[in-house]
Amino acid sequence: MQHKTELALSFLLSQVLLLACADLECVPGFQQKAFYIEEPFQFAEDQPVLKLKFDDCKGNNKLTFEVSNPNFKVERDGTLVALKNMSEAGRALFVHAQSEHAEDMAEILIVEENENRGALKEILKIESNLGFPRQKRAILASPVLVPENQRGPFPKSVGKVISSLAGDGVRFRLSGKGVDQDPKGIFKINEITGDISVTRVLDREATASYELEVEVTDVNGKNVDGPVRLDVFVIDQNDNRPVFKEGPYVGHVMEGSPTGTTVMRITAVDGDDANTDNALLRYDIRKQTPAEPSPNMFFIDPEKGDIVTVVSSVLLDRETMETPKYELVIEAKDLGGHDVGLTGTATATILIDDKNDHAPEFTKKEFLATVKEGVTGVIVNLTVRDRDDPATGAWRAVYTIINGNTGQSFEIHTNPQNNEGMLSVVKPLDYEISAFHRLMIKVENEDPLIPDIAYGPSSTATVQITVEDVNEGPVFHPNPMRVTKQENIPIGSKVLTVNATDPDTLQHQTIRYSIYKDPAGWLEINPTNGTITTTATLDRESLHVQNNTYTALFLAIDNGHPPATGTGTLHITLGDVNDNVPSLYPTLAKVCDDAKDLRVVILGATDKDLPPNTDPFKFELSKQSGPEKMWRLAKLNDTHAQVILLQNLKKANYNIPISVTDSGNPPLTNNTELKLQVCACKKSKMDCSAADALHISMTLILLSLFSLLCL
């Protein structure tokens, strides 16, 4: 089938070239620059594939061929031959030919079955039946193939444009990116011969192809034919090494994993043409560190880059390894791993992760601890061994008290630094209740054990705790103590007899009492029997009383060695008695001598006592002397009254005697004087200086009259 295809294609191309190039001179280079072959099921070793024809028009002296795919070669006569059996050769390969006088490039495309006919029709633009006559083209611009990284000197001829209009007065003109557009000046055309040349080294990775236009003009530059598209394809050379871009590469695999477990994938990229072997990568492990327990712990898929384990699960044991970290030097080589391929390397780090295949074990079966009664805090550190990876859930210990903690007096926490169990007393222990405690404790890991591993007897331990007796202070019952007393009870009255007991029941101790804090100095306590009596009058209105309550502190001291002290609090709630007279406010008032409003001032009264020993208050004026009354008192409510003048008074100072009586039983009265200043007022300004000069005191007048009467 392949030979038939080759012969048909060669025949068709030769006919087209003969028609297009009739009556033209020999053109150096490949006589056919593009080939299409159907991809067979398999290329057989040493089997001819097709034949290429190269003619430098001068005898082909020292003609050599180079093929881009190392799996093929070209014989001296131009026959393309497969070098080995293979089922896939890639999608494209290029053949470079060079003699003493010419060089050229041909492209061979490998297509799926029946794909070539459509491609050939597209390239040659002919009908499927190849009937005649056909439209004859004036310009023949075959695609130009230019290898990247060519050596100089430049310019270098890379192709030729042919026109049936060629002759005197006809010129070729080339345009497009790479000619008269940026990047300018890469390609040039001989306007007489149509030879295409390149002026510099090309880089396929920068620009893979150029789309130019060629046209034919007369000597005046007027277009005669065209423009016709001219494609320039930059042929890839293997000038890029594989590069690992996604590092660092770190993979994890669980210890005990079965053979063939995938650890990670590591891949590289190659800047060359992905459709050629120049970018066909193969991977290999070049070095493994460390080399124990096997120098070949891992394998890498040469095509995909998947790293998998190749040792048995028994050897993949983290606890028996020299180190749980392996470093692999990975090499990527292009040209499908061929010896002449370019290489790139990277380091892959593989960590063997721990699984919980070792149960924690106590270092001792029994731990001892001693603690004084009444003390809290850590009393003993429990130590364990665990062969798993520190700082993981397979190593971290979790402790539980499974017996003996009936009063919930103990707690245990894990020290994250060393995995020890810190046993603490959280409720003070009482020697008199129990002098010994025995706890049973188990230890587990945060992570569950693997199914074939179980916790054994070494994962439990006992703790023997001895409680030491200390001299504890006496305890008041109750505490605080509360009593209610009237504030005016006689001095020496009994307030309360306190009761304190010594918790050290195994010791026969006596207790003495004393005052610790008595802010007002009102109390005393019998040091033997604890009876509290008053030494002064209790006053509810004292600054030392808060919210009707007086607070004092007392001590109970035993005769132990050393003595221990207990503190008791006494709250005395004081009942109110009517022992405070009401007070009057304000005691000074001013009024203008020509005032029209004779309501002088509103008086108020307060009382330190509590109801019912306060308001309602009774306000009264003392008896006024003289023929006429000058003021009167009007009650406003239970706590206030108003002083009203009966007439305008002369400028002077007046003392008005007023009595205020509370509602207590018996009631208490406060006699006081309101000082009234009658002042001169002009333009809303009050001048009371004259009143001071003309001071008249009704009280003094009364006293003078009383003195005269007594003579």
What is the fold's blueprint, element by element?
Blueprint: H1 2-20, E1 29-30, E2 34-38, E3 48-51, E4 54-55, E5 64-67, E6 72-74, E7 79-82, E8 92-98, E9 103-111, H2 115-124, E10 139-140, E11 144-147, E12 156-160, E13 162-163, E14 170-175, E15 187-189, E16 195-198, E17 209-218, E18 223-235, E19 249-254, E20 262-265, E21 282-289, E22 298-300, E23 306-309, E24 325-333, E25 343-353, E26 361-362, E27 366-372, E28 377-382, E29 384-385, E30 397-403, E31 410-414, E32 421-425, E33 436-445, E34 460-468, E35 475-476, E36 481-486, E37 494-497, E38 500-501, E39 511-517, E40 523-525, E41 531-534, E42 549-558, E43 565-575, E44 583-585, E45 588-592, E46 599-606, E47 618-621, E48 631-635, E49 640-645, E50 652-661, E51 669-682, E52 685-687, H3 689-693, H4 698-710
Parallel strand pairs: 2-9, 11-18, 19-25, 27-34, 36-43, 45-51
Antiparallel strand pairs: 1-4, 3-7, 5-8, 6-7, 8-9, 10-13, 12-16, 14-17, 15-16, 17-18, 20-23, 21-24, 22-23, 24-25, 26-29, 28-32, 30-33, 31-32, 33-34, 35-38, 37-41, 39-42, 40-41, 42-43, 44-46, 46-49, 47-50, 48-49, 50-51, 51-52
Description:
By secondary structure, this protein is mainly beta. The chain folds into six domains: 29-111, Cadherins (Immunoglobulin-like); 139-235, Cadherins (Immunoglobulin-like, Sandwich); 243-353, Immunoglobulin-like (Sandwich), CATH 2.60.40; 361-468, Immunoglobulin-like (Sandwich), CATH 2.60.40; 475-575, Cadherins (Immunoglobulin-like, Sandwich), CATH 2.60.40; 583-687, Cadherins (Immunoglobulin-like), CATH 2.60.40.60. It contains four helices and 52 strands. Strands 45, 47, 50, 51 and 52 form a five-stranded mixed sheet that branches. A four-stranded mixed sheet has the order 2-9-8-5. The longest helix is centred in the N-terminal third of the chain and has 19 residues, at 2-20.
